[in-house]
Design goal:
By secondary structure, the protein is of the alpha+beta class. It contains 4 helices and 14 strands.
């Protein structure tokens, strides 16, 4: 009965009050600490559309994707709000559930150019990365204690504007998060350039990600000059990359 009353009240408020879609932009900026924003927002917070943008440290848009959203009215009867969110190029919509204590993200997939990696890791900018980056999560929760859940990043047709080898390979990074922080592992799926790495982001310790790069001898002349721009060469011919 309590959930029914809450849902009815929310529904009546929705009929009487239609906040503009620009409030979605404000909420997304706040939740992502400024990394994401919704530009050209139109419609309302109940149903609208715009451009989801990834923003670099200078607040310049690096990647933009068309996005639309609409409220699922049946969720109001359960005392929370569920949105269906459709991103351009995504085969199916994601679902965002908002309740007084937390936000849940389910079945989300974001496809972006690999060059967008430099938004999170500016050190990689000289490499002129190319290829397709897919970020997916089956279930993630955001609340006062932090972020909990997991995500997978897949870099397909990985390459560089500075290397004649194309593709360099295909790679996967798995990210797991709980109240203590995040952990990430990087592995090579296939390709002549082998990448392996791990990292952690925790509140009480400095954050860092380190990776090792190796390649067969016949590829050294073609790939090594690229790696020297972003990594340190070791005596054994491998390269060490550290991101902080």
């Amino acid at each position: 009965m309590k959930h029914l009353a809450l849902g009815l009240a929310a529904y009546l408020l929705a009929l009487l009050f239609t906040p503009p879609a620009t409030l979605v932009d404000a909420a997304v900026r706040h939740a992502s600490d400024g990394v994401l924003r919704v530009a050209e927002a139109r419609g309302s917070i109940w149903s609208g559309a715009g451009q989801l943008e990834l923003v670099d440290s200078l607040r310049h848009a690096g990647v933009a994707k068309a996005v639309s959203w609409h409220l699922l009215p049946t969720s109001l009867w359960r005392g929370h709000v569920v949105y269906e969110v459709q991103l351009a190029d995504a085969s199916a919509p994601a679902h965002v559930t908002i309740s007084p204590s937390q936000l849940e993200l389910a079945d989300a997939v974001l496809e972006i150019p690999a060059g967008a990696i430099v938004i999170a890791a500016p050190k990689l900018a000289p490499a002129q990365l190319t290829g397709d980056l897919s970020i997916s999560t089956a279930h993630m929760i955001v609340d006062r204690s932090g972020v909990r859940g997991s995500a997978t990043l897949r870099w397909r047709n990985a390459g560089s504007g500075l290397s004649p080898v194309a593709p360099l390979g295909e790679y996967e990074m798995h990210v797991d998060s709980d109240e203590a922080g995040m952990r990430a592992t990087l592995a090579t799926v296939k390709g002549p350039l082998e990448l392996k790495g791990h990292g952690s982001w925790r509140r009480e310790t400095p954050s860092a990600f380190s990776a090792t790069a190796r390649m067969p001898p016949e590829y050294v002349e073609q790939i090594a000059p690229l790696l020297r721009l972003i990594a340190s060469e070791s005596a054994d011919g491998t390269f060490q990359l550290v991101l902080r």
